From TrEMBL:
It is found in: Cytoplasm, Cytoskeleton. This is Profilin. Belongs to the profilin family. GO terms for molecular function: actin monomer binding. The keyword Cytoplasm applies. It comes from Caulochytrium protostelioides. CDD domains: PROF. Keywords: Actin-binding, Cytoplasm, Cytoskeleton. Its main location: cytoplasm. Gene3D superfamilies: Dynein light chain 2a, cytoplasmic. PANTHER family: PROFILIN. Occurs in many kinds of cells as a complex with monomeric actin in a 1:1 ratio. Binds to actin and affects the structure of the cytoskeleton. At high concentrations, profilin prevents the polymerization of actin, whereas it enhances it at low concentrations. Transmembrane segments: none annotated.
Length: 126
């Protein structure tokens, strides 16, 4: 399966995720939804936050020009929220999944979709 198919079929097609991207841990884009473009600086900041989340905890997380408040940040998952949307970012062995959901989708619904795909990819050594 292509990386784009993972974005389209495993994330967007669930109806829980509005925008999504998969980037390698080097920051390079592997796949993205049509309306979701992340500047390299935002991706680099996100990837660094899996190691040291202090920066996003104090200053927030920018994704696609939208500023999110970090709710959870550890070496696997980063969850963030605005008033009307949220982000679920999960690191695998070789990539980071970045997904944006919007109201009325609940955080737990989006988290289940993204974490599930991450677990699958980790099982495949990605």
């Amino acid at each position: 399966m292509s990386w784009q198919a993972y974005v389209d079929s495993n994330l967007l097609a669930t109806g829980k995720i509005k925008k999504a991207a998969i980037h390698g841990l080097d920051g390079n884009l592997w796949a993205t939804s049509a309306d979701f473009s992340l500047p390299k600086a935002e991706v680099d900041t996100l990837i660094k936050a899996f190691v040291d989340p202090a920066g996003i905890r104090s200053a927030g997380l920018n994704l696609g020009g939208t500023k999110y408040v970090a709710l959870r940040a550890d070496d696997r998952s980063i969850y963030a929220k605005t008033n009307t949307s949220g982000a679920v970012c999960v690191k695998t062995k070789q990539a980071v999944l970045i997904a944006i959901y919007e109201n009325p989708v609940q955080p737990g619904e989006a988290t289940k979709v993204v974490e599930g795909l991450a677990d699958y990819l980790i099982g495949l050594n990605y």
